[in-house]
Amino acid sequence: MKPIEVMMFEGCPHLDQAIERVRWAAADAGVAVDVSVVRIGSLEEAIDRRFLGSPTVRVDGVDVEPGARERRDFSLQCRLYRVGGRLEGAPPVAWIAAALRGA
């Protein structure tokens, strides 16, 4: 069973969408997952946990967004994902499924 963290701050408007996409990705990848919601409550915690904004999805502790490891803009902010020339409030199913497959 793969551990998935959906990191967020209280009141995140895209939390439900992120969790739904995690479930779709798990079904697509054929992987059993253990989803936990992790609340980030302070800027200090955001910096300590390398939190890039809400929602953040991590598989085995690694952010599903390609290139996220190089980012340093940790804070309590809404996170937007650039996908195919548009912005989305949650990472796409394809990124999550790729992370679940170990790609």
Quick structural summary:
With 103 residues, this protein is of the alpha+beta class. 28% of the residues lie in helices and 25% in strands. The chain has a single domain, classed as Glutaredoxin, CATH 3.40.30.
How many individual domains? 1
Q: What's the overall average pLDDT, rounded?
A: 95
The strand order across the widest sheet is: 2-1-3-4
H-E string: EHEHEEEEH
Q: What is the share of helical residues?
A: 25-40%
Tell me the total number of β-strands: 6
Main sheet summary: 4 strands, mixed
Which band does the percent of strand residues land in? 25-35%
What coarse outline follows from CA principal-axis ratios? globular
Organism: Pendulispora albinea
Protein name: Thioredoxin family protein
Description:
This protein has 103 residues and is an alpha+beta fold. It has one domain (2-100): Glutaredoxin. The chain is built from three helices and six strands. The strands form two sheets. Strands 2-1-3-4 form a four-stranded mixed β-sheet, covered by helices on one side. It has a two-stranded antiparallel sheet with strand order 5-6. β5 (81-83) and β6 form a beta hairpin. α1 packs across α3 (93-100). The mean pLDDT is 95. This is Thioredoxin family protein. It comes from Pendulispora albinea.
Question: What layout of secondary structure does this protein have?
Answer:
Layout: E1 2-8, H1 15-29, E2 33-39, H2 43-48, E3 56-59, E4 62-63, E5 81-83, E6 86-88, H3 93-100
Parallel strand pairs: 1-2
Antiparallel strand pairs: 1-3, 3-4, 5-6
Helix pairs in contact: 1-3
